[in-house]
Amino acid sequence: MALLFSLILAICTGPGLLGPLSRVRLVGGDHRCEGRVEVQRASEWGTVCDDGWDENDAAVVCRELGCGAVKKAISGTAFGPLTQEDQKIFVQEFQCNGMEESLSQCEREDFFDCSHKEDAGAVCGFPENVRLVDGPKRCQGRVEVKHQGQWGTVCKASWSFAATKVVCRQLGCGRALLTRKCCNKATQGQGPIWLRKASCSGKESSLEECPAGVWERSNCTHDEDMWVECEDPFELQLVGGDGRCAGRLEVLHKGQWGTVCDDGWGEAADRVVCRQLGCGPPLSPPAKFRRRFGPGAGRIWLDDVACSGKERSLEECPHRFWGRHNCNHAEDVAVVCAE
User: Fold this and answer.
1) CA-to-CA separations, 203 to 27, 158, 210, in angstroms, rounded
2) Could you tell me which SMART domains the record lists for this protein (predicted)?
3) CB 3.0–4.6 Å: which of 79, 213, 253, 309 could bond 28 by disulfide?
4) H or E element at residue 181
């Protein structure tokens, strides 16, 4: 009997009954280093069940993707929707010790009983290869990139506003505001000046994803260093409820929390908020229930928010300019998500 059990265990772990896994990716997050875990078998991508999923497993994903240290192992629907409606679940459970170089080296059980409400996910620390320095805030400053282990500035001849949008997104800041030639003597860079023509579309998650040539030293001077300014990071919260996944919606702008007007608000916007907060799907209760969270006070920051439901952040939904509205606090948005 013991021999039979060992044979069954050997079959159910290791390479797996359904063949080898060739690649892994994270999908549905704000950048390539967070999201729902998907593994590739042949030419098809499938998800991973969260049975036994922990930071040891997530650490291997982060390492395999070159995404730095693991921050969190995630379970559930935080990073929906699925890549395909009928997407398969390939793996029931990974059993990593956290030291493997790739998921393919971990023991695993192939899928037998799971739903997409139990998809595994991971949040990794994005590798630091770009930064803004010497600015008044962390989302403003002189652009520096890391190449061959050495930080250097970027020449204006190789820069564009589209590249600025990518940097703001990569650093977790808000929208790109401006890019200009830097700097006065106090904020000029030192050391190498890197030149690389980056043909960014502005939609990439990181500079690494922009089609470009190789980094090389340039003949520019530090008078031509690039300066970038982004909005502060876009943060939101639900307040007045019993937990973090239900309450009156508030967004942070210019260091001040304010509410959102319900003009044009719908279930698609609810989905974006629930996803961004890492909660479950929206429950969409009636207006009477939402009013229990009470009106806000102070600023009303957003109005006429028009989400499709596919956005990864409320920031990506079209809306009026910050602070422009025709509302009062009786129209404050409230959102209720599953935990």
Assistant:
1) 15, 18, 9
2) SR
3) 79
4) strand 176-181
